[in-house]
Amino acid sequence: MSAPRLSARPPEHLPNALVASKCVTKLADLPLIASGKVREMYELGRAAEGTPEAGSEALRGRIVPAAGGRLLMVASDRISTYDAVHPTPIPDKGKVLSGLSAFWFVKTQHIVANHLVSATAGVPEEVRGRGLVVRALRMLPVECVVRGYITGSGWKDYQASGSVSGIGLPEGLRESDRLPQPIFTPSTKSQEGHDEAIDFERACELVDDGALMGAVRDRSIELYSFAAAHTRERGVILADTKFEFGLDERGELVLGDEALTPDSSRYWPAAGYAPGRSQPSFDKQFVRDWASASGWDKRPPAPAIPDEVVAGTRARYVEAYELITGEPFEEWLTRTDVVHAQGAA
Protein backbone atom coordinates (compact mmCIF):
# COMPACT_ATOMS: atom_id res chain seq x y z
CA MET A 1 0.00 0.00 0.00
CA SER A 2 1.44 3.36 -0.99
CA ALA A 3 1.29 6.38 1.27
CA PRO A 4 -1.83 8.50 0.66
CA ARG A 5 -1.36 11.69 -1.31
CA LEU A 6 -3.00 14.44 0.70
CA SER A 7 -3.88 17.81 -0.73
CA ALA A 8 -3.92 19.43 2.68
CA ARG A 9 -1.27 22.08 3.16
CA PRO A 10 1.31 21.42 5.90
CA PRO A 11 0.72 23.30 9.16
CA GLU A 12 2.20 26.78 9.09
CA HIS A 13 3.95 26.29 12.43
CA LEU A 14 6.22 23.55 13.64
CA PRO A 15 5.57 22.16 17.14
CA ASN A 16 8.28 22.24 19.75
CA ALA A 17 9.72 18.79 19.19
CA LEU A 18 12.24 18.03 21.92
CA VAL A 19 13.22 19.23 25.36
CA ALA A 20 16.76 20.48 25.95
CA SER A 21 19.05 18.20 27.91
CA LYS A 22 22.48 18.72 29.41
CA CYS A 23 23.80 15.33 28.27
CA VAL A 24 23.96 15.59 24.50
CA THR A 25 26.03 13.89 21.83
CA LYS A 26 28.30 16.48 20.22
CA LEU A 27 29.35 16.02 16.60
CA ALA A 28 31.86 18.29 14.91
CA ASP A 29 30.64 20.35 11.95
CA LEU A 30 26.96 19.36 12.36
CA PRO A 31 24.56 21.94 13.80
CA LEU A 32 22.53 20.57 16.69
CA ILE A 33 18.97 21.75 16.09
CA ALA A 34 17.06 19.88 18.79
CA SER A 35 17.77 17.82 21.88
CA GLY A 36 15.45 15.73 24.00
CA LYS A 37 15.56 13.35 26.91
CA VAL A 38 16.85 10.58 24.66
CA ARG A 39 17.62 11.95 21.16
CA GLU A 40 19.53 14.65 19.35
CA MET A 41 18.67 15.94 15.88
CA TYR A 42 21.35 17.40 13.60
CA GLU A 43 20.96 19.23 10.32
CA LEU A 44 22.62 17.43 7.40
CA GLY A 45 20.97 19.14 4.42
CA ARG A 46 20.72 22.80 3.58
CA ALA A 47 17.73 24.71 4.86
CA ALA A 48 15.12 25.75 2.31
CA GLU A 49 15.49 29.22 0.80
CA GLY A 50 14.14 31.82 3.16
CA THR A 51 14.36 29.51 6.18
CA PRO A 52 16.33 30.76 9.22
CA GLU A 53 19.70 29.14 9.76
CA ALA A 54 19.58 25.90 11.73
CA GLY A 55 20.24 26.62 15.39
CA SER A 56 18.95 30.18 15.16
CA GLU A 57 16.65 31.57 17.85
CA ALA A 58 13.64 31.17 15.54
CA LEU A 59 14.18 27.42 15.18
CA ARG A 60 15.80 26.48 18.46
CA GLY A 61 14.15 23.31 19.73
CA ARG A 62 12.32 22.74 16.43
CA ILE A 63 12.94 20.39 13.52
CA VAL A 64 13.96 22.29 10.39
CA PRO A 65 11.61 21.41 7.49
CA ALA A 66 14.09 21.82 4.63
CA ALA A 67 12.51 20.64 1.39
CA GLY A 68 14.38 17.47 0.47
CA GLY A 69 16.67 18.04 3.45
CA ARG A 70 18.23 15.41 5.65
CA LEU A 71 18.57 15.11 9.41
CA LEU A 72 20.77 12.92 11.58
CA MET A 73 18.72 11.39 14.41
CA VAL A 74 20.92 10.06 17.22
CA ALA A 75 19.54 7.93 20.07
CA SER A 76 21.56 8.25 23.26
CA ASP A 77 22.02 5.82 26.15
CA ARG A 78 20.25 8.26 28.50
CA ILE A 79 17.26 7.07 30.49
CA SER A 80 14.62 9.09 32.30
CA THR A 81 11.97 8.35 34.87
CA TYR A 82 9.30 10.70 36.16
CA ASP A 83 10.37 13.34 33.60
CA ALA A 84 13.95 13.52 34.92
CA VAL A 85 17.08 12.22 33.18
CA HIS A 86 19.31 10.02 35.33
CA PRO A 87 23.08 10.71 35.24
CA THR A 88 23.81 7.01 34.62
CA PRO A 89 23.57 5.80 30.99
CA ILE A 90 22.32 2.34 30.00
CA PRO A 91 25.01 0.83 27.71
CA ASP A 92 23.77 0.07 24.17
CA LYS A 93 20.26 1.42 24.84
CA GLY A 94 20.57 3.92 21.99
CA LYS A 95 21.69 1.18 19.60
CA VAL A 96 18.72 -0.98 20.55
CA LEU A 97 16.33 1.92 19.92
CA SER A 98 17.84 2.77 16.53
CA GLY A 99 18.15 -0.88 15.52
CA LEU A 100 14.52 -1.63 16.31
CA SER A 101 13.33 1.55 14.61
CA ALA A 102 15.26 0.61 11.46
CA PHE A 103 13.81 -2.92 11.60
CA TRP A 104 10.25 -1.65 11.82
CA PHE A 105 10.72 1.10 9.22
CA VAL A 106 11.73 -1.57 6.68
CA LYS A 107 9.08 -4.02 7.86
CA THR A 108 6.16 -1.58 7.66
CA GLN A 109 6.93 0.49 4.57
CA HIS A 110 4.09 -1.26 2.71
CA ILE A 111 1.65 0.39 5.13
CA VAL A 112 2.95 3.95 5.11
CA ALA A 113 6.11 5.72 3.95
CA ASN A 114 8.67 6.55 6.65
CA HIS A 115 11.52 9.00 7.03
CA LEU A 116 14.43 6.50 7.16
CA VAL A 117 17.16 7.11 4.56
CA SER A 118 20.11 5.08 5.87
CA ALA A 119 21.62 3.55 8.99
CA THR A 120 25.16 3.74 7.52
CA ALA A 121 25.61 6.18 4.63
CA GLY A 122 26.07 9.65 6.05
CA VAL A 123 26.18 8.47 9.66
CA PRO A 124 29.39 9.63 11.41
CA GLU A 125 31.60 6.86 12.75
CA GLU A 126 31.22 7.92 16.37
CA VAL A 127 27.44 7.39 16.34
CA ARG A 128 27.21 4.29 14.12
CA GLY A 129 24.52 1.98 15.44
CA ARG A 130 22.82 4.87 17.26
CA GLY A 131 22.42 7.30 14.38
CA LEU A 132 19.95 7.23 11.50
CA VAL A 133 19.84 9.57 8.50
CA VAL A 134 16.21 10.58 8.02
CA ARG A 135 14.14 12.91 5.88
CA ALA A 136 13.12 16.26 7.35
CA LEU A 137 9.36 16.50 7.85
CA ARG A 138 6.78 19.01 9.00
CA MET A 139 5.71 17.13 12.12
CA LEU A 140 2.06 17.05 13.12
CA PRO A 141 1.32 18.41 16.64
CA VAL A 142 -0.20 15.17 17.99
CA GLU A 143 1.17 11.91 19.31
CA CYS A 144 -0.63 8.89 17.92
CA VAL A 145 -1.18 6.29 20.62
CA VAL A 146 -2.76 2.94 19.76
CA ARG A 147 -3.87 0.62 22.54
CA GLY A 148 -4.61 -3.06 22.14
CA TYR A 149 -4.73 -3.76 25.88
CA ILE A 150 -6.09 -1.75 28.79
CA THR A 151 -3.15 -0.69 30.95
CA GLY A 152 -1.20 2.34 32.14
CA SER A 153 -2.99 5.69 31.96
CA GLY A 154 -5.69 4.07 29.83
CA TRP A 155 -6.54 1.74 32.70
CA LYS A 156 -6.79 4.69 35.09
CA ASP A 157 -9.10 6.56 32.70
CA TYR A 158 -11.24 3.46 32.22
CA GLN A 159 -11.61 2.98 35.98
CA ALA A 160 -12.70 6.59 36.36
CA SER A 161 -15.05 6.92 33.39
CA GLY A 162 -15.42 3.62 31.53
CA SER A 163 -13.79 5.23 28.49
CA VAL A 164 -10.40 6.24 27.09
CA SER A 165 -10.02 9.43 25.03
CA GLY A 166 -13.78 9.58 24.62
CA ILE A 167 -14.04 5.97 23.39
CA GLY A 168 -16.48 3.93 25.47
CA LEU A 169 -15.25 0.45 26.40
CA PRO A 170 -17.11 -2.67 27.60
CA GLU A 171 -17.91 -2.98 31.29
CA GLY A 172 -15.98 -5.37 33.48
CA LEU A 173 -12.55 -5.12 31.89
CA ARG A 174 -9.62 -6.12 34.09
CA GLU A 175 -6.24 -4.45 34.12
CA SER A 176 -4.17 -5.71 31.15
CA ASP A 177 -7.19 -7.24 29.39
CA ARG A 178 -7.02 -7.37 25.61
CA LEU A 179 -9.44 -4.92 24.02
CA PRO A 180 -12.05 -6.14 21.53
CA GLN A 181 -10.19 -4.12 18.89
CA PRO A 182 -7.29 -1.63 18.95
CA ILE A 183 -8.28 1.95 19.77
CA PHE A 184 -6.68 5.23 18.69
CA THR A 185 -6.10 7.55 21.65
CA PRO A 186 -4.10 10.62 20.58
CA SER A 187 -2.37 13.04 22.90
CA THR A 188 -0.86 16.48 22.68
CA LYS A 189 2.90 16.96 22.43
CA SER A 190 4.16 18.62 25.58
CA GLN A 191 7.60 20.23 25.79
CA GLU A 192 7.40 20.30 29.58
CA GLY A 193 5.56 17.86 31.82
CA HIS A 194 3.25 15.09 30.69
CA ASP A 195 1.38 14.84 27.40
CA GLU A 196 -2.38 15.35 27.63
CA ALA A 197 -4.77 12.70 26.32
CA ILE A 198 -7.29 14.13 23.86
CA ASP A 199 -10.14 12.76 21.76
CA PHE A 200 -10.14 12.42 17.99
CA GLU A 201 -12.14 15.61 17.47
CA ARG A 202 -9.58 17.66 19.37
CA ALA A 203 -6.78 16.05 17.35
CA CYS A 204 -8.55 17.14 14.16
CA GLU A 205 -8.68 20.69 15.49
CA LEU A 206 -4.97 20.72 16.32
CA VAL A 207 -4.00 19.42 12.88
CA ASP A 208 -6.67 21.63 11.24
CA ASP A 209 -7.62 18.87 8.81
CA GLY A 210 -10.12 16.09 9.56
CA ALA A 211 -9.27 14.04 6.46
CA LEU A 212 -5.57 14.12 7.29
CA MET A 213 -6.24 13.10 10.88
CA GLY A 214 -8.45 10.27 9.64
CA ALA A 215 -5.57 8.96 7.52
CA VAL A 216 -3.23 9.26 10.52
CA ARG A 217 -5.64 7.26 12.68
CA ASP A 218 -6.09 4.54 10.05
CA ARG A 219 -2.36 4.16 9.39
CA SER A 220 -1.63 4.12 13.14
CA ILE A 221 -4.04 1.25 13.75
CA GLU A 222 -2.72 -0.64 10.71
CA LEU A 223 0.85 -0.26 11.96
CA TYR A 224 -0.08 -1.43 15.44
CA SER A 225 -2.07 -4.43 14.19
CA PHE A 226 0.72 -5.54 11.86
CA ALA A 227 3.39 -5.19 14.54
CA ALA A 228 1.26 -6.87 17.21
CA ALA A 229 0.72 -9.92 14.99
CA HIS A 230 4.47 -10.12 14.29
CA THR A 231 5.54 -9.82 17.91
CA ARG A 232 2.92 -12.30 19.14
CA GLU A 233 4.49 -14.90 16.87
CA ARG A 234 7.80 -14.09 18.57
CA GLY A 235 6.41 -14.57 22.07
CA VAL A 236 5.95 -10.86 22.80
CA ILE A 237 2.73 -8.91 23.37
CA LEU A 238 2.59 -5.36 22.02
CA ALA A 239 0.20 -3.78 24.52
CA ASP A 240 0.31 -0.24 23.16
CA THR A 241 2.56 2.09 21.19
CA LYS A 242 3.05 5.70 20.11
CA PHE A 243 3.70 6.97 16.59
CA GLU A 244 4.55 10.41 15.25
CA PHE A 245 3.77 11.51 11.71
CA GLY A 246 4.72 14.40 9.49
CA LEU A 247 4.24 15.67 5.96
CA ASP A 248 7.07 15.72 3.44
CA GLU A 249 7.70 18.43 0.86
CA ARG A 250 5.02 16.91 -1.40
CA GLY A 251 2.39 16.86 1.33
CA GLU A 252 2.52 13.07 1.72
CA LEU A 253 1.96 11.44 5.07
CA VAL A 254 5.19 9.98 6.47
CA LEU A 255 5.98 8.06 9.67
CA GLY A 256 8.71 9.89 11.61
CA ASP A 257 10.56 9.84 14.92
CA GLU A 258 11.16 6.33 16.35
CA ALA A 259 8.98 3.32 15.63
CA LEU A 260 7.84 0.54 17.95
CA THR A 261 10.79 0.69 20.35
CA PRO A 262 10.70 -0.22 24.04
CA ASP A 263 10.70 3.52 24.78
CA SER A 264 7.65 4.27 22.62
CA SER A 265 5.83 0.97 23.23
CA ARG A 266 4.76 -1.34 26.00
CA TYR A 267 6.07 -4.86 25.29
CA TRP A 268 5.16 -7.78 27.54
CA PRO A 269 6.49 -11.35 27.50
CA ALA A 270 3.61 -13.56 26.33
CA ALA A 271 4.73 -16.32 28.70
CA GLY A 272 3.11 -15.64 32.04
CA TYR A 273 0.65 -13.05 30.71
CA ALA A 274 -2.30 -12.91 33.09
CA PRO A 275 -5.00 -10.20 33.07
CA GLY A 276 -6.02 -8.68 36.37
CA ARG A 277 -2.64 -7.20 37.24
CA SER A 278 0.21 -5.19 35.74
CA GLN A 279 2.63 -7.15 33.55
CA PRO A 280 6.45 -7.31 33.45
CA SER A 281 7.75 -5.42 30.45
CA PHE A 282 10.79 -4.99 28.18
CA ASP A 283 11.38 -1.34 28.90
CA LYS A 284 12.53 1.07 31.58
CA GLN A 285 9.96 -0.19 34.07
CA PHE A 286 12.84 -1.98 35.82
CA VAL A 287 14.48 1.41 36.46
CA ARG A 288 11.16 3.03 37.31
CA ASP A 289 10.44 0.36 39.94
CA TRP A 290 13.89 0.89 41.47
CA ALA A 291 13.46 4.67 41.44
CA SER A 292 10.03 4.42 43.08
CA ALA A 293 11.42 2.29 45.92
CA SER A 294 14.66 4.27 46.33
CA GLY A 295 13.26 7.10 48.45
CA TRP A 296 13.83 9.66 45.68
CA ASP A 297 11.15 12.37 45.73
CA LYS A 298 10.78 12.13 41.91
CA ARG A 299 11.97 15.69 41.40
CA PRO A 300 15.15 16.67 39.51
CA PRO A 301 17.96 15.94 39.81
CA ALA A 302 17.44 12.22 39.31
CA PRO A 303 19.75 9.90 41.28
CA ALA A 304 22.50 7.69 39.87
CA ILE A 305 21.38 4.16 39.01
CA PRO A 306 23.13 1.19 40.74
CA ASP A 307 25.24 -1.13 38.59
CA GLU A 308 22.92 -4.11 39.01
CA VAL A 309 19.91 -2.08 37.86
CA VAL A 310 21.90 -0.80 34.87
CA ALA A 311 22.86 -4.35 33.90
CA GLY A 312 19.31 -5.64 34.31
CA THR A 313 17.89 -2.80 32.24
CA ARG A 314 20.40 -3.32 29.43
CA ALA A 315 19.59 -7.04 29.38
CA ARG A 316 15.88 -6.29 28.98
CA TYR A 317 16.45 -3.90 26.06
CA VAL A 318 18.76 -6.34 24.27
CA GLU A 319 16.35 -9.22 24.87
CA ALA A 320 13.53 -7.17 23.34
CA TYR A 321 15.64 -6.53 20.23
CA GLU A 322 16.52 -10.19 19.79
CA LEU A 323 13.03 -11.52 20.38
CA ILE A 324 11.35 -9.04 18.05
CA THR A 325 13.86 -9.13 15.19
CA GLY A 326 14.78 -12.81 15.47
CA GLU A 327 18.51 -12.06 15.23
CA PRO A 328 21.34 -11.58 17.74
CA PHE A 329 21.90 -7.95 18.76
CA GLU A 330 25.48 -8.34 17.52
CA GLU A 331 24.14 -8.54 13.96
CA TRP A 332 22.92 -4.94 14.15
CA LEU A 333 26.25 -3.82 15.59
CA THR A 334 28.11 -5.59 12.78
CA ARG A 335 25.92 -4.19 9.99
CA THR A 336 26.38 -0.62 11.20
CA ASP A 337 30.07 -0.88 12.08
CA VAL A 338 32.03 1.53 9.89
CA VAL A 339 34.76 -0.97 8.95
CA HIS A 340 32.25 -3.70 8.05
CA ALA A 341 30.07 -1.26 6.09
CA GLN A 342 33.05 -0.05 4.03
CA GLY A 343 34.11 -3.62 3.29
CA ALA A 344 30.65 -4.54 2.09
CA ALA A 345 30.28 -1.46 -0.11
CATH class of the domain at 139-283: Alpha Beta
Classification by helices and strands = alpha+beta
Largest sheet: 7 strands, antiparallel
Helix content: 25-40%
Indicate the CATH architecture of the domain at 139-283: 2-Layer Sandwich
Order of helices and strands: EEEEEHEEEEHEEEEHHEEEHHHH
Give the count of helical stretches. 8
**What overall form do the CA principal axes indicate?**
globular
Q: Indicate the proportion of strand residues.
A: 15-25%
Mean pLDDT: 86
- How far apart are the first and last residues' alpha carbons, in Å? 30 Å
Stretches where pLDDT is under 50 for at least 5 consecutive residues are 1-23, 47-65, 341-345
Number of strands: 16
- Radius of gyration computed on alpha carbons: 20 Å
Fold-level CATH name of the domain at 139-283: D-amino Acid Aminotransferase, Chain A, domain 1
CATH homologous group name of the domain at 139-283: ATP-grasp fold, B domain
Describe how the helices and strands are arranged.
Blueprint: E1 32-35, E2 39-43, E3 70-75, E4 80-81, E5 84-85, H1 93-107, E6 116-118, E7 131-135, E8 138-139, E9 142-149, H2 152-161, E10 163-164, E11 167-168, E12 178-184, E13 187-188, H3 200-207, H4 210-233, E14 236-247, E15 253-256, E16 265-269, H5 285-293, H6 307-325, H7 329-336, H8 338-344
Antiparallel strand pairs: 1-2, 2-3, 3-7, 4-5, 6-7, 8-14, 9-12, 9-13, 9-14, 10-11, 14-15, 14-16
